């Protein structure tokens, strides 16, 4: 079951940085929409997914997603989630960023950034910009813009033939989508597919497939499904191969990444 979410009706932000805290049910989603402000979406619990025309971006609790102002996007969660969203006036970020990025970015959330976000979301919407809350905002923005990017974005190609192949792989991440099969389906040679795919996405076909499978695995692992079952569902021959691939992308094993200690 899917549950549509209402988009906040804000004509303008009451402060340069404004926070929203939401408890999201499993299957929550929004219609495509955009904002005049930059958005920083962080899930304290659960896994957030942001979809745009050019890619999918996944954020488990230790990650967050920057969404540029004016970019149409959808927000969805396959399982329950606790979301903290910061709406930020681009002018507040200009001195720190210079030119704001034109694409979504998934970033690693440090323990300090996490505590700053949680502290800020507890403030009233009309906080004192010139007092202690205003100083907290300054520290918060300094920390957020410095967060390192994580490899949890899945770019989608503009070429319609490649986009169709990507949809096939996303619909069934565990199937054997070999290069010859994909090339034949797209009506091109293996070499042409390999060259064009990297030019369109910045990733090799193998890298893209592996990342797609890891992103599909995140919600399953977050819900407590066993590593072996998820590995088989994602098409891996062994649990050890899945764990190695997960560690390569996430920097930790699934057990380490989703342990209670890792969320603190």
TrEMBL record:
UniProt keyword annotation of Transcription regulation present: yes
UniProt keyword terms in alphabetical order: DNA-binding, Transcription, Transcription regulation
CDD domains per the UniProt record, alphabetical: cupin_NimR-like_N (cd06124)
Keyword Transcription: yes
Domain HTH araC/xylS-type: 160-260
Organism: Nitratidesulfovibrio liaohensis
Alphabetized Pfam families for the sequence: AraC_binding, HTH_18
InterPro entries in UniProt: AraC-bd, Homeodomain-like_sf, HTH_AraC, HTH_AraC-typ_CS, RmlC-like_jellyroll, RmlC_Cupin_sf, Tscrpt_reg_AraC-type_HTH
Name of the protein in question: Helix-turn-helix transcriptional regulator
């Amino acid at each position: 079951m899917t549950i549509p979410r209402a988009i906040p009706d804000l004509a303008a932000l009451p402060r340069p940085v404004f926070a929203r805290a939401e408890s999201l049910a499993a299957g929550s989603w929004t219609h495509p929409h955009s904002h005049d402000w930059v958005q920083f979406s962080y899930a304290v619990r659960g896994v957030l997914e942001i979809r745009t025309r050019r890619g999918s971006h996944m954020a488990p609790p230790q990650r967050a997603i920057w969404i540029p102002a004016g970019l149409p996007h959808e927000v969805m969660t396959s399982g329950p989630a606790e979301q903290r969203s910061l709406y930020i006036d681009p002018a507040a970020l200009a001195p720190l960023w210079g030119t704001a990025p034109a694409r979504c970015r998934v970033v690693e959330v440090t323990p300090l950034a996490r505590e700053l976000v949680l502290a800020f979301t507890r403030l009233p919407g009309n906080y004192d910009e010139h007092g202690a809350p205003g100083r907290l905002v300054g520290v918060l923005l300094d920390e957020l813009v410095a967060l390192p990017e994580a490899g949890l974005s899945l770019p989608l190609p503009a070429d319609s033939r490649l986009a169709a192949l990507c949809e096939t792989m996303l619909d069934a991440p565990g199937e054997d989508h070999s290069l010859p099969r994909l090339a034949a389906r797209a009506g091109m040679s293996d070499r042409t597919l390999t060259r064009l795919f990297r030019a369109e996405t910045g990733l090799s076909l193998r890298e893209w497939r592996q990342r797609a499978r890891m992103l599909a695995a995140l919600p399953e692992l977050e819900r407590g499904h066993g590593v072996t079952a998820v590995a088989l569902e994602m098409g891996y021959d062994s649990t050890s191969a899945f764990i190695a691939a997960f560690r390569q992308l996430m920097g930790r094993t699934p057990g380490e990444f989703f342990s209670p200690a890792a969320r603190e």
